[in-house]
Amino acid sequence: MSLFRCQLRSEDVVRAYIDRIREVNPLINAVVEERFGAAIEEARKADVLIGETQPLWLIKNYPLLGVPFTVKESCALRGAPITGGSLARKGVRATVDGEAVAHLRAAGCIPLLVSNTPEYCLNWESYNHVTGRTLNPYDNRRTAGGSSGGEGALLGAGASLFGVGSDVAGSIRVPAHFNGIFGHKPTAGAVSIHGHFPMSTDEKFARLLTVGPMARYAKDLPTLLHIMAGPNASRLRLDESVHTKDIRILYAEDMGFNLGHVPVDDDIKMALYRAVQYFKGHGLVTERAEFERMADGMELAFSVLQSLTDVPSIFHNPDNPKANPNLLVELARCAIGQSQYSLAGIMFYVIFGLKNFFAAGRLELYQEQAATLRKQMIDTLGTDGVFLFPTYPTAALRHYESFGHIMGVGYTMLFNAFGLPATHVPLGFDRNGLPIGIQVVAAPYQDRLGLCIARELEAAFGGWRAPK
């Protein structure tokens, strides 16, 4: 049920989700650590407060009083692990809530657990040497995605009502796509990233990384975003009425021709076309988007990431800050299963840490082109347009396949680089019975447009559907 339909006692709802988590987690391995006992006590207190307060509007300061939720381990939850999936950080716990989590708890929400991520959130598969590998609830031979893969798997399995995720290159939207749920990457800066691990001192990092809501129901996203944004909520204007008929629909079925691109599956293209035709049939303006340099989207996005001057290193050891492992040695150890670091983490360190992906002149050119494309997108979308676009070229990959599909993440990374809000919307299943969907992108601080379209598509195409 949506959080707006819950009429049971908080304790009943919390216990129901705990039972479901216990049922599915042995099959998907999404939980890093639970806090079920504390959650039940908090639910009981919420029920007492509700029972003793009449009329109920007097508890308006707690709009989600007694509602359970789950948290990605990288988003600090007081008292819970915040290891980043790193063996060197095993045992590290958050001493305070991250700001977005704190806003939810202040609204009365009850956290149940922290969920799995890849090491340092540096992969689109959620695997690390601390918790292991998270599996997809629709097909355990496939990945739940990353880096918010634990959240995606729990939500897809119906074991969480909503979750807190983070997204630096698609880490909310890719797991949402693979697990058939909704996930919203807010406008850059709209939700505080304070309390996230890993973190960077480079101010540009705060424009790339976002914290946002993941949920089974589109109607829950605006309320969750409003609460998580805290003092920035007014800038999002989520309380303003938005009429679907007034929104322009732009779309593209892929990024254009590039030898390195992963082709978009026909099932995903057809799902996108059905969405466009639905809106066209209801009288909305629909138009194929023609953005310059879109075919180089992955390179443009990566050029922005490459500009970071402070890249968090998986090799940092809190107990021995001066330690500097040899990269080649660690790669060799990884090949024989003897490294304490994951292969994905090491490979990302090669790309990000060594900064040799582009030559200096090429990097500067791509950054200039990225700025031009960003401006063109913002000008084209304006205050009444959204862009329908694949979230990822395929449905959930088999485990380890992400190494051969790295270019696919360009479909999401581009909008991190540009700071644009994007909402993943599930649109049914492909021929193999795997969830597929698209993302709805808007101009900065026009999140409400994408959320409106997400809700319309949910009503038209069914939204989240439980695994069989």
Global structural class: alpha/beta
Instruction: Walk across the major sheet and give the strand order.
Output: 1-3-2-8-10-9-14-15-13-11-12
Basic shape: globular
Sketch the major β-sheet. 11 strands, mixed
CATH superfamily: Amidase signature (AS) domain
Mean pLDDT: 94
Family: Belongs to the amidase family.
Domain Amidase: 12-448
Protein name: Amidase domain-containing protein
GO cellular component, one term: endomembrane system
Give an overview of the whole structure:
- The protein is α/β, with parallel strands linked by helices.
- It has a single domain (3-461), classed as Amidase signature (AS) enzymes (Alpha-Beta Complex).
- Helices cover 36% and strands 15% of the residues.
- An eleven-stranded mixed sheet has the order 1-3-2-8-10-9-14-15-13-11-12, with helices on both faces. A two-stranded antiparallel sheet has the order 4-5.
- Helix 10 (297-306) packs across helix 14.
- The longest helix is centred in the C-terminal third of the chain and has 22 residues, at 360-381.
- The model has no long low-confidence stretch (mean pLDDT 94).
